[in-house]
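All the exercises in this workshop are built on plain-text protein records. An example says more than a description, so a record of this kind follows:
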Amino acid sequence: MFTKTNISRPMRTVLAITATAGLGLSISACGGVVDNADAGEGESVTLTLATAAAIGTPNAAVQDWYLDRVEEKSDGRIKFDRTAPESLCKAAEVVDCIRDGRADLGVTVPDYTPQYFASVSVSGIPFIGQNSQAITQTLYEIHTDYEPAVKTLEDNGLHYISTWPVGRFLLGSKTPIDSADDLSGLQTRASGPVIQQMLTAAGANIAAITASETYEAAERGVVTSVGGAMDFAVNYKLMELLPYWTDPGIGQYSTFGMWFSEDVYEGLDQDLKDIIDEVTEELNAGAGVGAFNDVAAGQCDQLSTASSVQEVDQWDSEATDEWKKRIGNDAEAAWLKIAADYKLSNPQGLLDEYKAGLEAHSGAEYEDATSNCVANFTK
């Protein structure tokens, strides 16, 4: 057994490297035993995860599916040290933890560090993304095939695994919000540079805080409403404080993402990289969204049976159309400016690629857990 302590940069976290030649057994990350007798010669690695995905959330389900699948396909030669959510690095610091070597891979909301993810934030433009699988597949293709997006990742020392929508945008509040006019004057928490600007234009005052900080902010009255996915209401317990939840029709608005350190990925044996690539493709081809929706469906039961929740509904189509008309081209213009400010090469080209990808994958099989929940609640 030997340890490799430096991979290209001085602060690189320690990887546990175990020579498997001649060894029949190794201990898996969850304490079981894995037979490596047929795995062939080569290294075994233990990689440290930093995550902002709270336990029990749909985003944690995507993360765990990926980690479990990589460990399984590698016959235990790749293992993950699964640190507790935000224990190693806070949500807004996860990407910096990957870049400076405290973690080998990370899971968090790209919008917390938009300077690294202008190419991902295109998915935050309201009303153009409704199918979560189409968005996931399109973002994967953009970040593996489209040169400006690939270069952004390389420049930041990141290797792309996946980015997936967190669910349809819901507004939670103390009183009903039935149209854009009702947003005026509200103290609102939302993540995502474009949706924040659109809420501000409607008169809301934005508090840019992380998901884990929001319950306390709502409890203290710092925010009186939130914009977020269904897990915001359920897993972050906002439904205890905000009884009214509504879908304004924006659709998918923000994402969770997962990345390796580029140095760590490139430092692996080629056969291990091949395994990672295969599982990454599986994840983006539908397994990730499937894992997400399995958990999201259960969230609806919790939301609909909570005694504190008075209403879960959606805006009338007229109210949605009116807000969409009011926004017009402002959302796309806002994203183009944000992307240019963060030095993304050819933002218009990337937006065109994104729209083309959504069109190409528009037939992707997908059933939305949030839409189903709203429909069931309003029966």
Observations:
- The radius of gyration is 21 Å.
- The longest helix spans residues 270-305.
